[in-house]
Design goal:
The structure is a single chain. Strand 6, helix 4 and strand 7 form a beta-alpha-beta unit. This protein has an eight-stranded mixed sheet with strand order 3-2-1-4-8-7-6-5, with helices on both faces. Helix 2 packs parallel to helix 4. It is built from five helices and eight strands, in the order αβββαβαββαββα. The termini are far apart. The longest helix is centred in the C-terminal third of the chain and has 24 residues. About 40% of the residues are buried. The chain has about 210 residues and is an alpha+beta fold. It has a single domain, classed as Class II aldolase/adducin N-terminal domain (L-fuculose-1-phosphate Aldolase). Bound molecules: zinc ion. The site of zinc ion has 6 residues, from loops. One of its GO terms (molecular function) is methylthioribulose 1-phosphate dehydratase activity.
Length: about 210
């Protein structure tokens, strides 16, 4: 495979995931980004500024783990460094997905002092069977203050990501969700589970 050209099956998986995220309303305007690990410390990621519902396979570009584009003339997403960080930490992670949903944005804005959302008692937590052995335990979803400076934001995230067990994902305040999995579909299922949890948390808080 020529340098900078993403294998077609990988690009097609990311295009399909982008379409699904768009149908669910998780990537408004040109927000969000999607990536998959390639061999040799490289990844496939959506290029900057493209709508995720209208992705084409040529919008998926190759980037190294320092966030540098290997596809001539194509710029990666501004948030590529946050994807690099996850791949560098956990070799078994094969895909990272990021979206800007209403539940993730609204709930984190409504909790300006909170550093985590504690999720407990939800059956769907089983989506993280590597982290969660019973739906009864409390799982912390870290909330990190948003920052336009990506190296600074990555440094803020590092202690959260490195402590004990990996979190189930994280949310950036007023911004969106990051979640990951062994491959694109596994990451997509977890994104769906996390979006369900945040939307349910909002509904539950309205009722008490
Ligand atoms: Zn974003």
């Amino acid at each position: 495979m020529a340098a900078g050209i993403v294998p077609l099956p990988v690009a097609e998986k990311l295009v399909a995931a982008g379409q699904r995220m768009d149908r669910r309303g998780w990537v408004p305007a040109t927000s969000g980004n999607l990536s998959a690990r390639l061999s040799g410390d490289r990844m496939a990621i959506t290029r900057s500024g493209v709508h995720k519902g209208f992705l084409e396979t040529q919008d998926i570009i190759e980037v190294d783990f320092a966030g540098r584009s290997l596809t001539p003339g194509m710029k990666p997403s501004a948030e590529t460094l946050l994807h690099c960080q996850i791949y560098a930490l956990w070799p078994d992670i094969g895909s990272v997905l990021h979206g800007h949903s209403i539940p993730a944005t609204a709930l984190t804005m409504a909790l300006p002092e909170a550093s985590a959302i504690h999720l407990q008692g939800y059956e769907i937590l089983k989506a993280w069977s590597n982290v969660v052995s019973t739906h009864d335990i409390s799982v912390a979803l870290p909330i990190i203050d948003n920052d336009q400076d990506m190296p600074r934001l990555a440094a803020q995230l590092q202690p959260w990501l490195e402590q004990g067990r990996a979190p189930i994902g994280y949310v950036l305040r007023g911004h969106g969700i990051y979640v990951w999995g062994s491959d694109v579909n596994a990451a997509l299922y977890r994104l769906e589970a996390l979006e369900f949890l945040l939307a349910t948390e909002i509904e539950r808080r309205k009722l008490v």
